[in-house]
Amino acid sequence: MENRPCLRPYAASFDVLFMTGRLVRNMAEFKVVVSDKTGHTRQFEVDGQDANRFLGRDLGDEVDGSAVGLDGATIELTGGSDNAGRPMREDVPGSDLKELLLEGGVGYEPSRDGERKRVTVRGRQVSDETAQINAAVLEETPIAVLLGEEEPEDSNEADDADVEADENDDETDAE
């Protein structure tokens, strides 16, 4: 049998893999927005192995901060949305879409009392369809300090207090 050129040139252009009869897309990609206790936020692009740490997690779960470059910190998943902007709700199980009749809360803000609206939301579990994940640092340390952009303020204050204490000891000894 002779070798003939591939009659389907488009087959190589698809960005998917077929493995064991299952369609597998590229690795997951997320934008992770992390906030700290001071109110500062940072946005990180996460893909590959780091993105896999988030897959299957529910809102409220804790994840190691090294997935977004915050070594030594723990972050808690607080929310998120998909590519269409539909929010994740903590009271909806799984990662599927669901239509809810809402009176308020995540996904709908009524303009008057008693107003309700049917809204499509996504479940609380992070999946490939998730585009953005919101998270919060559980430690008191600001994000800039965790990233190494600023020096920790506590160590400077402690050094200043030690110097003042030494000066007070010297004055007490002189008397």
From TrEMBL:
BP GO terms, sorted: translation
Region (Disordered): 146-175
MF-aspect GO terms: structural constituent of ribosome
GO CC annotation terms, alphabetical: ribonucleoprotein complex; ribosome
Taxonomic superkingdom: Archaea
Pfam families, A to Z: Ribosomal_S6e (PF01092)
Keyword terms, alphabetized: Ribonucleoprotein, Ribosomal protein
Acidic residues compositional bias, start-end: 148-175
PANTHER family linked to this entry: 40S RIBOSOMAL PROTEIN S6
Family: Belongs to the eukaryotic ribosomal protein eS6 family.
UniProt protein name: Small ribosomal subunit protein eS6
Organism expressing this protein natively: Haloquadratum walsbyi J07HQW1
